[in-house]
Amino acid sequence: MAVGLLTLELYLPMNDSLKGKRSILKPLVARLRRDFNVSVCEADAQDVLTRAVLEVACVSHNHALAHRHLQQVAQRVENWRLDAQLIDYAIEMLG
User: Fold this and answer.
1) Contact (Cβ atoms closer than 8 angstroms) between residue 20 and residue 48
2) What's the 3-state SS for 32-57?
3) How far is C-alpha 76 from the geometric centre of its chain's CA atoms?
4) Are residues 42 and 24 in contact, defined by beta-carbon separation less than 8 angstroms?
5) Buried b (16+ CB within 10 A) or exposed e, 71-93
6) What distances in angstroms separate CA 57 from CA 10, 11, 27, 65, 93, one per listed residue?
7) Model confidence pLDDT, tens digit, residues 33-85
8) What is the Cα gyration radius of the chain?
9) How far apart are CA 10 and CA 63, in angstroms?
């Protein structure tokens, strides 16, 4: 069994309030959970209006499948929203 952890760093260029940030992140998190069956949380920069760090976790049978799954998540996030730009991502394999 393999556990993969994806860290997504997002830039929210047109955001100027916590309410605006929530309106961007909430649908993104819900869609990731629904479409990819992963766990997602906002892990850092909660008080920074133009930046968000999301952690995405998945469990799979082997490391290759988990890594590929998390790469697909990162690619989808990069293409989904115009108001949330993917700055960087990192995949870490655990166990």
Assistant:
1) no
2) HHHHHCCEEEEEECCCCCCEEEEEEE
3) 10
4) no
5) eebbeebeeebeebebeebebee
6) 17, 21, 18, 13, 10
7) 999 999 999 998 888 889 999 999 999 999 999 999 999 999 999 988 778 89
8) 13
9) 25
Residue with tokens 């830039």: 11
Q: Concatenate the DSSP letters of all residues of the chain into one string.
A: -EEEEEEEEEE-TT--SHHHHHHHHHHHHHHHHHHH--EEEEEE-TT-TTEEEEEEEEEESSHHHHHHHHHHHHHHHHHH-SSSEEEEEEEEEE-
* Residue found by looking up tokens 């997002």 in the block: 10
Instruction: Give the domains, in start order, of the chain with CATH numbers.
Output: 2-94 (3.30.70.1120)
